[in-house]
Write a structure and sequence with these properties.
Length: 216
């Protein structure tokens, strides 16, 4: 097996299985792939950590490399979405993407202040209206504006779920780089891979949670 100098690890943690993929940050086309399925309905809550440790240990032994960090994909029942809209009057000021980003950051701060027990794992820019005309989110935004409305969708997860995972992986001296929603990330991948346009709907039926995502 080709030695990996800079491992980039992605772990999908589901209700019934785990899926670990390790890529080389320098050569992303070289992938070492590990997969293990666990029936969690037959495992006590306190014993769930052992399959994770076994999976990581096997990967580290096969790669002869310690996995310093991991990106975690989960679809916990505690994940949910929240819609938010903000409006600001600019009074014919020339605005750019910087002003749009400031508004989005303000929205994130408001969500965090009013949801102290939640973590934002995705911020989705649903719609941007400049003087009632829909505008694409892009670097080239530069125009005179009187009123800007931004519609956002946040995907949130219970903060204690994140903290429990962080503490769990620290036992193996591994930090969690990012946490993403599995069904959202996989839906985006299918859209991009198959170049799907227009409206698309995805139903993810899981053991403890089922979700419906509609994209445009």
């Amino acid at each position: 097996m080709t030695e990996i100098d800079s491992p980039n690890s992605i772990l999908e943690f589901g209700s019934t299985h785990m899926h670990l993929a390790v890529y080389d940050k320098i050569f992303l086309n070289q992938c070492s792939f590990y997969k293990e399925k666990i029936n969690y309905t037959k495992i006590e809550e306190s014993s769930k950590e052992q399959p994770i440790f076994n999976l990581i240990t096997k990967a580290e032994n096969d790669l002869n490399k310690h996995l310093n960090e991991v990106t975690l994909l989960i679809d916990s029942p505690s994940i949910h979405s929240l819609d938010f809209s903000i409006q600001k009057i600019f009074d014919k000021k020339i605005i750019s993407k910087i002003e749009i980003d400031y508004l989005i950051n303000d929205c994130e701060k408001i969500i965090k202040i009013n949801n102290t027990d939640k973590e934002i794992i995705h911020t989705i820019k649903h719609r941007i209206l400049i003087d009632d005309k829909e505008t694409e989110y892009q670097n080239e935004i530069m125009r005179e504006a009187h009123k800007v409305i931004i519609d956002l969708k946040f995907i949130l997860i219970e903060k204690n779920v994140c903290e429990n995972f962080k503490k769990l992986f620290l036992q193996k001296h591994i930090t969690i780089k990012n946490i993403f929603c599995t069904s959202y990330i996989k839906s985006l991948e299918i859209i991009n891979k198959n170049q799907i346009s227009g409206y698309s709907s995805f139903i993810d039926i899981g053991l403890n949670k089922s979700s419906l995502s509609i994209f445009k």
